[in-house]
Specification:
The structure holds two protein chains of two kinds.
Chain A (H helix, E strand, L loop, with lengths): L7 E6 L2 E6 L4 H7 L23 E6 L2 E6 L10 E3 L3 H17 L4 H9 L19 H10 L5 E3 L6 E3 L14 H5 L5 E6 L2 E8 L2 E12 L6 E4 H11 L10 H8 L6
Parallel strand pairs in A: 1-5
Antiparallel strand pairs in A: 1-2, 3-4, 3-5, 6-7, 8-9, 9-10, 10-11
Helix pairs in contact in A: 2-3
Chain B lengths: L13 H16 L4 E5 L2 H5 L2 H14 L8 E4 L11 E4 L3 E3 L7 H11 L8 E3 L4 E3 L6 H4 L17 H6 L4 H9 L2 H11 L11 H10 L8 E6 L8 H8 L1 H15 L3 E7 L3 H17 L14 E7 L8 H8 L23 E5 H13 L1 H5 L9 E8 L5 E6 L4 H8 L9 E6 L5 E4 L9 H6 L8 E6 L4 H15 L5 H18 L7 H15 L3 H5 L2 H9 L1 H10 L13 E3 L19 E2 L7 E2 L9 H5 L5 E3 L1
Parallel strand pairs in B: 1-2, 7-8, 7-10, 8-9, 11-15
Antiparallel strand pairs in B: 1-3, 3-4, 5-6, 11-12, 13-14, 13-15, 16-19, 17-18
Helix pairs in contact in B: 3-4, 7-11, 7-14, 8-9, 8-11, 10-12, 11-14, 18-19, 19-20, 20-22, 22-23
Classes of the chains: A alpha+beta, B alpha/beta.
Chain lengths: 260, 626
């Protein structure tokens, strides 16, 4: 492969001819064709990690063949893709069986595993909930832009969270990590004027962080964490009092129905 | 305000280089005699610095400073016999030298040409003493093209390197060759990457040269993050001959069009770090790095990056992530580093030894280089020969030499006359090779064919007291810890292999465990992100392939035939053989052996922790391990 040219090319997916562009990423092509490819660490809008290896397919050309991940694989003229052969399924089963052994109580993993015929892993069961997909890290860095989370340690000891898994971090409390976590091990709770976000596995809480919530000056409704609003006003150049009112009260004020 | 002044380099043109070379030759090599002391890490551990110090003292006391220079060189390779001292010009080879020998070496051997019998190497089988380095079997069967200069030059002195012909390949490349010609020459030489995968170096250079960079910037990197257990050749090259690596990098940079290079080196290699730092400083001072090198118009400089100790950072994309200040994790390389590498610029990364090969190819030509080795593996390869072999150390051999020649002719056979069992090549990514394949020629493709790999050149020899399950367990344990943990197959899969091997070694192995290991191994190899994970199953799969009975003995009979796996062995004392010498009583840390002098002793198995101390001391084979 000598770099993507963007020229019109033909690839073969499960024997079917498909017209596309040189260097186009495979996964969206497969989705458009209606081919079901399981993913865990893939999310539109953030860069690909290639971490979960669940979206593997086999790429072939003449006598050459290789298992590749469709979420990052740039296609080229003439490549033949097989999405569901035994070699591909062997890798997916490895991923799902080991993840199920790691996280036996996570419904998403249970469901995916059973789709591949895995009921009970052949390994010692553990009690994790985080699959280390790094989606939270990537969303925080690439979409929110605050770099509050990172992957830490390596090998079997690898963990994900705020620096040293403590309460100190640049986190603004936006909760984006909570929304993207596929196994729901990042939790969030808004209560009594405060938001708490934490990472929880088997009842053990780490990276716990608490944020004061800002309320509407007029009606007292909760708007968002103070830090988050400060971050937005600073980044966009809005006036610091821009978020003093909630959406509803702002609309009323604009119509002249509310005077603060 | 004063303008920042740039130091004017000492050598600015080709003519100045040749004049300087003459001057340095005169300065260092017009003496009749000199003494070279090995200053490699192994010999330093053996006390060579004290030896060199004492030799210098004796020289000073006798007013011989101008007559007998002492050179503290890089590693000579024969670490087993260090500290090593060579007396020139006769090249009298002394081994296991201590400071007390300094006086004799200077006054009698160097000044009067006397040969000191007691310090010579003796060939064990023949009981024959050997005088010259090249006659020692360990060296005789080697081909030391890259490593040869290590024993001669002072790595801290660029003038020494220049005197012996250093930077002449650079001169040739800059003034007599076009970049494309250099690449063509490297391609024709057949040089393949010495870091592990064996990718053709010339092809890599070509794609970096062709790759478009958004701002014209390209990089070259020297990968000195050597991390395989038991491998230390890159370290010794940098410690002993850092300028050969720099010269290769400058030529490579010129060929691909890079103006900035980096050496990524392990922080745990303090001596190598010191030597490369010094070499870069000196290369700048003398004009081989910086602006307008030797008046060629080509500018290039090299910086140093120190690795933090993660094995995975020897993988190219993880190495570059680490250099960029990110977590040292690899990324998928569907877009090659030669197109988007360091800071997304085309990057040419080669291993230390690969770079060191370059000046040789430029100087002597591709045809000469390609005449050495096998069809698809050219030149020589440096191996660290370790384990249960008589002559451990660093060796450089032509590609295609057989394992038997390496282990028996160079390595001097198995320690203690025991039986050879297997050799592990390629470190944690490689595999074990059994006795039946001892006549296998060592090259990239043949090693891969038998389920191992060249890797960076580790060679661990094992005897019949080595348990193959235990060896696989060791490597899988290493990989479980050193996996970066990014992708699931490597992070989760390899530790599940460890879980299974642990239970087999503990006597809890189940029917089907071997098949499960094979199933996991093949899926991990297919599914992992980087080379670490893709090759991680090799040590296990090759072990099962060649030593299946031994694995089965652990599972079915719950026995460890080599007597290594603690949970599967018991110690007892054979009353027939025990003479009651009491030798085993003292070393037992648990005091579980009791008995009176001249009466058979008794071992209380319930207290025994199976350390084997009694087994090792018994001279009557009375301690039985089952």
């Amino acid at each position: 492969m000598e770099g993507a040219s963007g020229k019109d090319i033909t690839i073969y997916v499960n024997g079917k001819e498909v017209k596309t562009k040189d260097g186009a990423i495979l996964l969206p092509i497969l989705k458009e064709l209606g081919i079901k490819v399981p993913t865990l660490c893939y999310l539109e809008g953030v860069s690909g990690a290639g971490a979960c290896r669940l979206c593997v397919v086999e790429a072939k050309y003449k006598s050459w063949s290789r298992v590749v991940i469709s979420c990052l694989y740039p296609v080229w003229d003439g490549v033949q893709i097989e999405t569901d052969n035994e070699r591909v399924h062997a890798v997916r089963r490895l991923v799902l069986e080991t993840l199920l052994a790691r996280c036996p109580n996570v419904p998403l993993i249970q469901r995916l595993a059973s789709e591949y015929g895995i009921k009970k892993p052949r390994f010692k069961l553990e009690n994790h909930e985080c699959i280390l997909c790094s989606l939270c890290v990537r969303v925080c860095a690439e979409v929110v832009g605050v770099y509050a989370l990172s992957m830490q340690g390596r090998g079997a000891e690898k963990v994900c969270g705020t620096p040293y898994l403590g309460s100190e971090s640049t986190c603004i409390g936006c909760g984006a990590c909570v929304y993207v976590c596929p196994t729901e091990c990042i939790k969030m709770e808004d209560k009594d004027g405060y938001r708490t976000i934490w990472h929880e596995e088997a009842g053990v809480k780490t990276s716990v962080r608490r944020f004061e919530l800002k309320t509407c000056k007029a009606c007292g409704a909760v708007i968002a964490p103070k830090y988050q609003l400060e971050y937005i006003t600073k980044k966009t150049g809005l006036s610091p009092d821009y978020y003093d009112l909630c959406k509803t009260c702002k609309a009323l004020q604009a119509k002249g129905l509310l005077v603060v | 305000m004063a303008m920042a002044t740039r130091n004017i380099p000492l050598i600015r043109t080709v003519e100045e280089l040749e004049k300087a070379r003459e001057r340095f030759r005169e300065k260092y090599y017009s003496v009749k005699r000199y003494i070279s002391v090995c200053g490699g890490t192994g010999c330093r551990g053996g006390g060579c610095l004290a030896v060199a110090e004492e030799i210098k003292n004796v020289i000073k006391e006798n007013g011989l400073e101008n007559e007998v220079p002492v050179r503290l060189t890089g590693c000579h390779g024969f670490c087993e016999r260090g500290p090593l001292v060579v007396v020139y010009p006769q090249k009298i080879f002394y081994q296991k030298v201590k400071p007390v020998h300094a006086r004799k070496i200077v006054l009698r051997s160097t000044m009067q040409g006397e040969i000191l019998e007691e310090l010579l190497y003796e060939i064990p089988e023949e009981r024959k003493k050997v005088v010259h380095e090249e006659d020692v079997p360990f060296y005789k069967h080697q081909m030391r093209l890259i490593f040869g200069m290590n024993g001669m030059i002072d790595p801290e002195n660029i003038e020494d390197y220049i005197a012996l012909g250093g930077y002449s390949a650079l001169k040739k490349a800059l003034f007599e060759m076009q970049p494309e010609q250099i690449i063509e020459e490297v391609k024709k030489s057949g040089l393949r990457g010495r870091g592990g995968a064996g990718f053709p170096t010339g092809r890599k250079w070509e794609s970096v040269r062709r790759a478009k960079s958004r701002d014209g910037i390209k990089y070259v990197i020297c990968n000195a993050d050597e991390g395989d257990p038991g491998a230390f050749m890159d370290r010794s090259l940098i410690e002993g001959n850092p300028h050969s690596v720099l010269e290769g990098m400058i030529i490579g940079a010129f060929a691909i069009g890079a103006h900035q290079g980096y050496v990524y080196i392990r922080r745990e290699y303090p001596l190598a770090l010191k030597m490369i730092t010094r070499a870069i400083q000196q290369a700048r001072e003398y004009g081989f790095l910086g602006e307008n090198i030797l008046g060629s118009g080509f500018s290039f400089d090299i910086g140093i990056n120190r690795g933090g100790g993660a094995f995975v950072c020897g993988e190219s994309s993880a190495l570059m992530a680490s250099m960029e200040g990110k977590v040292g994790e690899p990324r998928p390389k569907y877009v090659h580093m030669s197109e988007k590498g360091l800071w997304e610029r085309p990057t040419c990364l080669n291993n230390v030894e690969t770079w060191a090969n370059v000046p040789l190819i430029i100087n002597k030509g591709a045809d000469w280089y390609a005449s050495i080795g096998t069809e698809n593996s050219k030149g020589t390869k440096i191996f660290s020969l370790v384990g249960k072999v008589n002559n451990t150390g660093l060796i450089e051999v032509p590609m295609g030499i057989t394992l038997r020649q390496v282990i028996y002719d160079i390595g001097g056979g198995i320690k203690g006359g025991r039986k050879f069992k297997a050799v592990q090549t390629g470190g944690p990514s490689g595999g074990v090779i059994p006795e039946s394949l001892l006549d296998l020629p060592v090259d990239f493709d043949r090693l891969t064919e038998v389920g191992s790999m060249m890797g960076s050149g580790g060679m661990i020899v094992m005897d019949d007291r080595t348990c193959m399950v235990d060896v696989a367990r060791y490597f899988v344990n290493f990989l479980t810890e050193e996996s970066c943990g990014k992708c699931v197959p490597c992070r989760e899969g390899v530790r599940r292999m460890k879980e299974i091997i642990d239970r087999i070694a503990e006597g809890k192995g189940k029917r089907g465990d071997i098949a499960l290991l094979e199933e996991l191994g093949s899926a991990i190899a297919d599914g992992s992100l980087c080379g670490l994970g893709q090759s991680a199953p090799n040590p296990v799969l090759s072990s099962i392939k060649y030593f299946r009975e031994e694995w089965e003995a652990h599972i079915k009979q719950k026995k460890c035939p080599a007597g290594v796996c603690k949970e599967l062995i018991t110690y007892s004392i054979d009353p027939e053989k025990c003479t009651g010498c009491m030798a085993c009583i003292k070393p037992c840390p648990e005091q579980c052996i009791t008995g009176e002098r001249k009466k058979p002793h008794v071992l209380d198995a319930s207290k025994c922790i199976k350390c084997g101390a009694c087994f090792d001391v018994c001279r009557y084979d009375a301690v039985v391990r089952q």
